[in-house]
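Appendix B. One record, verbatim.
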Amino acid sequence: MDLRVDHKTVIVFDLDDTLYNEMDYLRSAYRYIARELDSKNWERLFAKMFSLFRSREDVFQFVSETYKTDKSRLLEVYRGHKPNLSLFNGAHELIQDIKGKNGKLGIITDGRSSTQRTKISALGLSKIVDKIVISGEIGSEKPNETNYRIIEETFPGFDYIYIADNLRKDFITPNRLGWNSIGLVDNGSNMHFDGHLYFD
């Protein structure tokens, strides 16, 4: 990706399915839960959970009933476990290139504060990103203008570039605000695979 970046540029990323594959988070959580509940046969349980997810079944209802455990507790573990995640190929190099040109980095992401912060930490981005905006911390989700205005207020007078994957909601506001935006096309591995519905 060829971006013109200098000290008055801020590159803002979405998080899930933009900097890493969100399906990896799901796999990480399922693997953690399966090992906790059935250490000897965890791989079989993991495969069953993933199969149910692919079939759009209620995974946690199945696990709750089969292992006599509270469903809400399973959701807590899913959201609170420390995930094993990696940045997409090329993302680390892009981030280093931006920082090397004195550009600023931002993240705008929807989700619970603790979950998104844990993901950001697992990806090694906590101390690299200059401004993180999480919907669960400010009380509004994309495409609410507030989420993007926080970036503008943090970096007034900068050139803003937004990189994201969700064609349904990610680009409405930055485009209206005059930001440059870059949409990433799903290669078929994203958690939510309906992006093709928003192409004209």
